[in-house]
Amino acid sequence: MTVLAIDSDTRIRQNVQQELRWDSRVDDSEVGVAVHEGVVTLTGSVDSYAAKQAAAEAAHRVKDVLDVANDLTVKAPGSGVHSDTDIAQAVRRTLEWDTLVPHEHIQSTVSNGWVTLTGTVGRGSQREDAERAVRYLWGVSGVTNQIVINAPPVPPGVVQTAIEQALERRAAHKARRIGVEVTADTVRLTGRVRSWWEKQAVVGAAGHAPGIHAVCDELIIDPLA
């Protein structure tokens, strides 16, 4: 690694630490930060899955961060620990109260605080919304999303056009830099984006397209793109 790269990683590390300190959802004293060639690794332990996710989001907000390896572990609090039954009941109530989630088609299993979601929904956005709904519940240590998308087939050409139009509407994403290839119910994304947030927006736009069950994300983060 060159001296310039080392200096850049040092600057990124300092900025990530400051961003964690600024984010009130995270106790920065619990989080270790290492950076190598723009890739941030977070280590340590936090008291909730919500804090783990918040720490990763904070790191992604920092300029020149290419990716984040979130190795934080979720530790159970010393008191007021919720049983798996408590968590399962909370998951069910949360899914029922979320108007974006077809709760009657979704089941959950809880083991040692880890929630596994199964079932069948009609759109990729509903799959994402179900996970989002339960991700931040107290006592949840992680979420595995095994929900299957079961939607009627849409001609690949129609899907590709819809995705490209969605990207064009979001001028900051500059669709000309993004390759979109649709095969059956899967979309493959290639090209370069300037940040993790831009990458998430592009993947989200593709995932919400009708008839799409899976997104193959091959986008590369390049701040100079």
Quantity of strands, as a count: 11
Gross geometry: flat
- Arithmetic mean of pLDDT: 86
Number of domains: 3
| CATH domain topology of the largest domain | Histidine-containing Protein, Chain: A
Please give the count of helices: 6
* Binned strand content: 25-35%
User: What letter string, H or E per element, gives the SSE order?
Assistant: HEEHEEHEEHEEHEEHE
Structural class label? alpha/beta
Largest sheet: 4 strands, mixed
Task: Describe the structure using short key phrases.
single chain; 225 residues; alpha/beta; Histidine-containing Protein, Chain: A; 3 domains; four-stranded mixed sheet; 11 strands; 28% strand; flat
What would you say this structure looks like, in words?
- The protein is of the alpha/beta class and 225 residues long.
- The protein folds into 3 domains: 3-74, Histidine-containing Protein, Chain: A; 84-149, Histidine-containing Protein, Chain: A, CATH 3.30.1340; 156-221, Histidine-containing Protein, Chain: A (2-Layer Sandwich), CATH 3.30.1340.
- The protein is built from 6 helices and 11 strands.
- It has helices spanning 3-22, 49-60, 84-97, 124-135, 156-169, 196-207, and strands at residues 31-36, 39-46, 67-70, 73-74, 106-111, 114-121, 142-145, 148-149, 178-183, 186-193, 214-221.
- Strands 1, 2, 3 and 4 form a 4-stranded mixed sheet that branches. Strands 5, 6, 7 and 8 form a 4-stranded mixed sheet that branches.
- α1 packs across α2.
- The two termini are 22 Å apart.
- The mean pLDDT is 86.
